[in-house]
Design goal:
Blueprint lengths: L1 E3 L17 E5 L6 H14 L7 E5 L3 H5 L8 E4 L2 E2 L15 E3 L2 E3 L4 H19 L9
Parallel strand pairs: 2-3
Antiparallel strand pairs: 1-3, 2-4, 4-5, 6-7
């Protein structure tokens, strides 16, 4: 199942204006995916990436989890790469924990998301030649 947050794009493309492709992977019983989606949208907006949509993928089987770079629920991918790289992928429909300044949590903080987004978008800029909105300032 795929859904997209504003702005809407064609299902499966994850792109509208040549920007990054963002995917939020989660399992049905994950208590943290909706808060992660809210924080991710806020972090993208705050870093000048308002036009970048977020594809939301519900993983309902081990096969589905194995088809993605899934490291537990929720996992955030930018152009297919985990925004918070970890020890590895899993096919298990399991929760994920993130190390935050306040201890372990079921999702990264908004500040961690902003830092990771800026870092990834700048790195992506150097490999694609396309300036991110923040690096252009």
């Amino acid at each position: 199942m795929t859904t997209e947050t504003d702005p809407v794009t064609s299902p499966g493309t994850g792109r509208r204006d040549g920007g990054a492709r963002i995917e939020l992977l989660h399992i049905a019983d994950c208590p943290n995916w909706e808060e992660t989606l809210r924080l991710l949208r806020s972090a993208l907006d705050a870093t000048g990436h308002r036009a970048v949509p977020i594809g939301v993928q519900l993983l309902d089987s081990q096969e589905a989890a194995g088809a993605w770079a899934f490291a537990g629920s929720p996992t955030i991918l930018v152009d297919g790469v985990d925004l918070f790289p970890s020890a590895g992928r899993t096919r298990s429909l399991a929760c994920r924990v993130y190390a935050t300044p306040r201890g372990f949590s079921g999702h990264p903080t908004r500040a961690q998301l902003e830092e990771a987004i800026v870092s990834r978008m700048i790195a992506g800029c150097s490999s694609t030649g396309v300036a991110s909105p923040r690096s252009a300032r």
